[in-house]
Amino acid sequence: MNKKNLRRADTICLSGKTRIPTLFSFHNKHSPSSCLLFLLIAGLCNVSSATNTCEANPAPIRFVLTFDDGPSAVQPNNPTEKVLSTLLKNRFQQDIKAIFFTQTRAVNGGGTEFGRSMLKREVEAGHVLAFHTATPRHSNHRYLKEGQLDTSLDLGIADLTGMTGIAPKLVRPPFWNYDARTLDSYHGHGLQMLLTDLSANDGIIYGINFSLTKRRNMRKMLLTVRPQWCRNEMPSVDGATPIIVTFHDINSYTANHMDEYLEILLDVAKELEIPTSEKPFYDDREELERAALVRVIKDAGNPPELPGMWNWFWRLFS
After folding, report:
1. What are the distances in angstroms from CA 12 to CA 3, 43, 46, 47, 267?
2. Torsion angles phi and psi, residue 314, rounded to 5
3. pTM (2 decimals)?
4. What pLDDT, on a 0 to 100 scale, did the predictor assign at position 306?
5. pLDDT at res. 47
6. What's residue 274's pLDDT?
7. Which of 48, 61, 202, 263 sits 20 to 30 Å CA-CA off 27?
8. Which residues contact 24 (CB under 8 A, 6 or more apart)?
9. What pLDDT score was predicted for residue 212?
10. CB neighbours of 109 closer than 8 A, spacing ≥ 6?
11. What's the gap between Cα 182 and its chain centre?
12. Three-state secondary structure string covering the chain
């Protein structure tokens, strides 16, 4: 593509518009390869200009970082430990607090001496410990009999209360799978269920562990959330709209790229013209927990859409 046509493409991008007739005209007069390049540029313009002005004046967003399935008991190079280090010190905001949905009795995590030491570190660092499982493996709560689920919840609550001195308030179901029965059991044990808006999709690892679509995925999910935020339909607290983001602290790739993930969240919010709070992440435990509690799911009858394949998967296998 020559300089004149590059300038034309650049002008289109800067204007925030894609002029389809211009593109067809370009196709008729230039080689197919040049046309494909021009269309690619135009497609990127469409991506970057896919927003509009909000009239409802919603509160700026603030990211609630959550981590599932931990702690990891891997040694050396423990991924949970790396996540904690990045949250404490990174390029964007120091001493970020997060919610850790823990597996308190996992045979390769919270059920080990080293795993329990990581839970203690999370507490000492001012993070929120929440419940995920208290079974040896990552058991689906819907597949546990009522007595088994109640026992699991009692054990997990006791484990976390022993660590923190206070009973946990939050739960996240394994595999995002819940129904009216499990939700009633959570509520009966004083637990509120928190799902998510955005997900790194890093919970299942088969062999090679990396992601080439981190930014695209986060942008796509935040773009899905944007209309609801723009209409001021999302709850706000302490002057901000909490956006829930899910990672897995047992994932070594996530742990090694946590600083990059923080950058991606800030970049895509700016790109989509969604203002963030002065502090885009939470750095106070009480504020963080309040933010999470305004986003909990009260009723199993109207389930929200989950990122990725999970809604489709559980509709198929329910």
Report:
1. 14, 11, 10, 13, 22
2. -75, -25
3. 0.83
4. 80
5. 45
6. 98
7. 48
8. none
9. 75
10. 69, 70, 71, 72, 73, 103, 115, 250
11. 22
12. CCHHHHHHHHHHHHHCCCCHHHHHHHHHHCCHHHHHHHHHHHHHHHHHCCCCCCCCCCCCEEEEEEEECCCCCCCCCCHHHHHHHHHHCCCCCCCCCCEEEEECCCCCCCCCHHHHHHHHHHHHCCCEEEEEECCCCCCCHHHCCHHHHHHHHHHHHHHHHHHHCCCCCEECCHHHCCCHHHHHHHHHCCCEECCCCEECCCCCCCCCCCCCCHHHHHHHHHHHHHHHHHCCCCCCECCEEEEEEEEECCCHHHHHCHHHHHHHHHHHHHHCCCCEEEEEECCCHHHHHHHHHCCCECCCCCCCCCCCCHHHHHHHHC
145 burial class (0-12, 13-18, 19+ CB within 10 angstroms)?
exposed
- Residue given tokens 């919010």 in the structure block: 269
